[in-house]
Design goal:
The complex is a heterodimer.
Chain A (H helix, E strand, L loop, with lengths): L1 H8 L9 H36 L2 E2 L9 E2 L3 H7 L2 H34 L4 H13 L2 H11 L6 H8 L14 H26 L3 H9 L4 H12 L1 H16 L3 H6 L11 H11 L3 H25 L1 H9 L2
Antiparallel strand pairs in A: 1-2
Helix pairs in contact in A: 1-2, 2-14, 3-14, 4-8, 4-11, 5-8, 8-11, 11-14, 13-14
Chain B lengths: L1 H11 L7 H10 L4 E7 L3 H17 L3 E7 L3 H14 L5 E5 L3 H6 L7 H4 L15 E2 L2 E2 L1 E7 L1 E6 H6 L10 H11 L1 E3 L2 E8 L4 H10 L17 H16 L2 E2 L6 H12 L3 E7 L3 H7 L4 E4 L9 E2 L1 E7 L5 H14 L2 H11 L6 H5 L1 H5 L3 H8 L3 E2 L7 H16 L5 H17 L1
Parallel strand pairs in B: 1-2, 1-3, 9-10, 9-11, 13-15
Antiparallel strand pairs in B: 3-14, 4-5, 6-14, 7-11, 7-12, 8-9
Classes of the chains: A mainly alpha, B alpha/beta.
Chain lengths: 315, 421
């Protein structure tokens, strides 16, 4: 397509013309993308390629002169290590729940806020605040709230006559506690994006639905959700990637514990690289992490065909 | 030994290795002082005391200017030093926790102190020097050194009719804990005893049971044994009985919880480092006592804390300046106030025999007296990661997710790989 446009604007004069001229015309569009490409190569493709390269070596930051080629041994070590499988499953469970809850709650909040315009500002400010506070201070606050003995959350539970919860202190509840914090943090942002999406849906669609006496759930299912699909898609990708790469909450609140129950990919990479000096293992785990993020995004792209068709071809 | 090596070196090549006279000459000619970076890993009150000492050093002479900066706890400091070494902007002097010295030394990150000390290392307490040598070279000198202690809320003990000197054996610890645990309406309001489920205390209990962490050749883990199992069974039984609290939180978070509970009188006795002595004494509203860790077969503790190291990448000039500082801050005149202000042990033999230490609060002598039962921490490069593996496995057991046997054999299996390195 680019070539056609270029040929239209700058027609090649004749077959007897200078071939280099032709060549320039042909490559002109590529020339325009060189700056962007150079930027991406330097800060994106090169680091990834280098990371893959490093994953085939046994090395540590302490002594870079002692790098040793080990082939696929790092990957072999990863996939024969039960802890790594636990890390993968933790990451997966955390991502699924954070994304599902974070988007689900935000969606209904957005629907609600979209109706009641008067308290819109106050509520929105309240739920958006977590998004702009540093995650480290949020994590510190939640640690106080979640203290099993003196924490506010358990005090509230007990006030209602419910048994105290162990929160971060137990392997069974720690991951759920981290999901809670992440959802709380992400809901405000998601809601804001959803509201923007909702407000861009043309009113006449709803008017038409009202004239046809469409029940509320059907309006939601047939109009709101399909019209919101680009927003849904955007949030799905953003949320999946960010929960895949969760680090600061873990670093501050649990350090991956108790007993690896909250250890997830990026923290595992940090631990291997910076605490245990296993640069090779850390690089190999990074490769696995990149592949999984790419796969999950690719997956979202594939499964979104229906919605995209509605948007681009339906109107 | 190191002295003679130095002598030979100086004899062979006067150019490379500084003799005493040469060492002083360039500094005197210099226009400004040599600046060196010192990264430390003790926070709060102890950090302030250390900053005070550094300031005193800077004011006492004009050849060396030490820039001290706090880098977080030991774990954080190690990570930062590692990253800085790779980036080439490492500090000249830093603290390294003694169980990790081997990992740093093996990677050739630490400078050989031999050429600088001129035999000065003779002044240190021999019991504190066991985590200082790597391949027969002196790579570290003791600084903020500790042993674990049993801290007692003496008021609470007296009120319960117990001996305020504290329990001497595991069985007594259990009885005391039971007597101190208080329940109100089916809820425990105060526990008798609390300890972080940390590798350091686990090591202590293994030693007390007559065991060792590593085999003698350092090639395999020795805790998959009755001696390694005894601490876990002891802790499990006390937790089950409801008289011991395993504080929540990872790494030093759990220590902070234990100390906070102790100050708030929600536990009567805790294990923590002698380095917490001053801080706990100042913050507690009750009579704080310190005692040996109770004995199983015998008393026993690992030594702990951090040593001072010099980084191999620093320039010759910086190294000389660095040693001047390291020597000064571990001198008897400095180590006595450092000990009395923090609770860490004084590091020189002269300090131990000094009148100041003898006149001090008896609590400050407990760690020193306990030193006769102390062993060094394992000195193999793989121990940096292995100690985390052991810690995870013993926590798995204490949280009820594995039997002691399962946990320890899992640790032993992972150790095989790590100790081969």
């Amino acid at each position: 397509m680019w070539k056609e446009i270029a040929l239209k604007r700058y027609p090649i004069r004749s077959k007897t013309g200078i071939p280099s001229q032709q060549l320039i015309e042909k490559f002109r569009p590529y020339l325009y993308v060189v700056p962007a490409l150079a930027f991406f190569t330097l800060f994106f493709f090169y680091p990834i390629a280098y990371m893959v390269y490093l994953s085939f070596y046994d090395w540590s930051l302490l002594d870079l002169s002692a790098m040793e080629w080990v082939g696929l041994e790092n990957f072999q070590a990863l996939f024969t290590d039960n802890d790594f499988y636990q890390v993968l499953s933790n990451t997966f469970i955390f991502t699924v729940f954070t994304v599902a809850l974070g988007m689900g709650i935000a969606f209904f909040l957005a629907l609600w806020l979209n109706q009641r315009a008067k308290i819109y500002g106050v509520v929105q400010a309240a739920i958006f605040t977590p998004h702009i506070i540093s995650l480290v201070s949020i994590a510190m606050l939640w640690m106080w709230l979640m203290d099993p003995q003196y924490g506010l959350l358990n005090a509230i539970l007990e006030w209602f006559g419910l048994p105290a919860y162990s929160w971060l202190a137990d392997t069974k509840s720690a991951l759920a506690s981290l999901v809670l914090v992440s959802v709380w943090k992400v809901v405000g942002y998601n809601t804001l994006v959803f509201i923007a999406g909702l407000q861009s849906i043309p009113k006449y669609l709803y008017e038409a639905a009202a004239l046809d006496r469409s029940p509320a759930w059907k309006t939601l299912w047939k109009i709101t959700i399909p019209m919101l699909s680009p927003t849904l898609f955007f949030l799905l990708i953003i949320n999946t990637i960010s929960s895949f790469q969760v680090f600061d909450t873990i670093y501050v609140m649990t350090q991956g514990g108790p007993v690896n129950s909250t250890n997830m990919l990026v923290f595992y990479i940090y631990e291997q690289g910076m605490d245990f000096y296993n640069g090779g293992i850390a690089s190999a785990a990074s490769v696995v992490e990149k592949v999984e993020v790419l796969l999950s995004c690719f997956d979202s792209f594939c499964n979104s065909d229906f919605y995209w068709m509605f948007q681009s071809g339906g109107s | 030994m190191t002295l003679s090596v130095t002598a030979i070196f100086t004899g062979c090549s006067n150019q490379e290795v500084p003799s005493a006279a040469e060492g002083k000459q360039p500094a005197a000619e210099q226009k400004g002082p040599v600046e060196i970076d010192f990264w430390y890993a003790v926070g709060g009150h102890n950090g302030e005391v250390l900053e005070g000492l550094v300031k005193k050093f800077n004011e006492s002479q004009d050849e060396v200017e030490v820039k001290a900066s706090y880098q977080g706890d030991y774990y954080e400091n190690h990570s930062k030093v590692l990253a800085a070494v790779a980036a080439g902007n490492q500090p000249d002097v830093t603290m390294v926790e003694i169980g990790v010295i081997a990992a740093f030394a093996d990677a050739k990150v630490l400078a050989d102190l031999g050429p600088y000390t001129e035999g000065d290392e003779e002044k240190y307490i021999p019991g504190l020097m066991k985590n200082s040598y790597w391949n027969d070279k002196l790579v570290a000198v003791p600084f903020n050194r500790s042993t674990p202690l049993l801290y007692l809320n003496r008021d609470m003990l007296e009120k319960a009719g117990l001996d305020p000197k504290g329990p001497k054996t595991w069985e007594e610890l259990r009885q005391y804990s039971k007597a101190l645990t208080k329940q109100e309406g089916g809820k425990t309001v105060s526990f008798g005893f609390s300890t972080p489920i940390d590798i350091w205390f686990y090591e202590a209990l293994v030693f007390q049971s007559g065991g060792n962490i590593l085999s003698e050749d350092g090639k395999s883990l020795a805790i998959n044994s009755p001696e390694g199992k005894a601490p876990l069974e002891f802790w499990n039984a006390m937790i089950k009985e409801g008289i011991m609290k395993a504080p929540p939180g990872e790494k030093y978070n759990a220590w902070d919880v234990a100390k906070q509970d102790f100050i708030n009188e929600q536990v009567g006795m805790i294990f923590t480092s002698t380095g917490d002595l001053k801080g706990l004494k100042d913050n507690a509203k009750f009579n704080v006592g310190a005692a040996f860790l109770p004995a199983n077969k015998d008393f026993g503790v690992p030594t702990g804390g951090a040593n001072l190291v010099m980084l191999a990448k620093s320039s010759e000039e910086e190294k000389k300046a660095a040693w001047k500082f390291m020597k000064w801050i571990t001198e008897t005149e400095q180590t006595i106030p450092w000990s009395l202000e923090t609770g860490y042990m004084p590091v020189t033999q002269k300090a131990v025999e000094s009148d100041e230490m003898k006149a001090a609060d008896p609590n400050f002598r407990v760690a020193l007296d306990q030193l006769q039962y102390a062993k060094p921490r394992p000195m193999v490069p793989g121990y940096k990661e292995l100690q985390e593996v052991i810690m995870t496995e013993i926590q798995r057991n204490v949280l009820g997710q594995a039997t002691p046997d399962e946990a320890l054999s899992a640790a032993a299996e992972k150790a095989q790989k790590l100790l081969k390195k």
